[in-house]
Design a protein that fits this description.
Length: about 220
């Protein structure tokens, strides 16, 4: 039976790489699929992985109708055995409903990939709807790590190297960005709660306030 499957995880855990791997495996067996994405780091109409892999895709912008696009594609003589949708957290709930309709009415597998929560730990509307409708929700097993070495579970937004918890829900960026621009960092829950990024942790470690500075104590040693 065809399924709507939601692959979720933090940034930097290999979601886009898995999407490309699924495309490769199925196309190698003679199947044909349509690839959709939105706001990919490589630009419009691209699905890219941080490993350097990239392929063309259909840009599913605001107001895009997945179901109508598939019906038009099939009606024009095109073939589609499955659909892949990356960056699904950016989609509107009604677009997720369209993905579910593709599964139910066109009987195609749909594989959606996305982040579950935003930088404020709030569910993206698209991800929330996927959790509500998906036949399966798969949490990726390739763990992204916090700077402390613990499993990263939250996405932090940084501006000028400092973590922020206010602002628009959708601001396109990436991990490992220069500190002068909007960037993102994956953190464990403890350090996300404390707003302690890698840069903040380094600054705290170098601060004289946390080092022994009493000269008498030092001379007595």
């Amino acid at each position: 039976m065809p399924e709507l499957v939601f692959f979720s995880g933090t940034m930097d855990c290999g979601k886009s790489t898995l999407a490309l791997q699924i495309e490769h495996n199925r196309s190698a067996r003679g199947l044909e699929g349509l690839i959709f994405t939105r706001n990919d780091r490589a630009g419009e109409g691209k699905l890219s992985s941080r490993l350097g892999l990239v392929t063309d895709s259909v840009e599913a912008g605001e107001g895009f109708d997945f179901y109508a696009h598939l019906v038009a594609h099939l009606s024009a003589g095109g073939r589609a055995d499955y659909a892949i949708c990356d960056e699904a957290q950016f989609l509107a709930p009604e677009q997720i409903d369209q993905l579910a309709r593709i599964v139910d009415d066109l009987e195609l597998d749909v594989f959606a990939f996305g982040i579950t929560t935003d930088f404020r730990t709030k569910l993206f509307p698209g991800s929330q709807r996927l959790i509500e409708l998906a036949d399966r929700v798969e949490v990726l097993q390739v763990e992204a790590l916090c700077w402390c070495g613990a499993r990263a579970t939250h996405n932090a937004r940084t501006v000028g190297g400092e973590m922020v918890v206010e602002g628009a829900q959708v601001v396109v960026g990436d991990v490992n960005q220069p500190e002068t621009v909007v960037g993102y960092e994956v953190l464990c829950r403890r350090h996300h709660r404390r707003r302690l990024t890698a840069a903040a942790a380094r600054a705290a470690a170098l601060s004289p306030d946390v080092l022994p500075v009493d000269p008498e104590t030092e001379n007595a040693r």
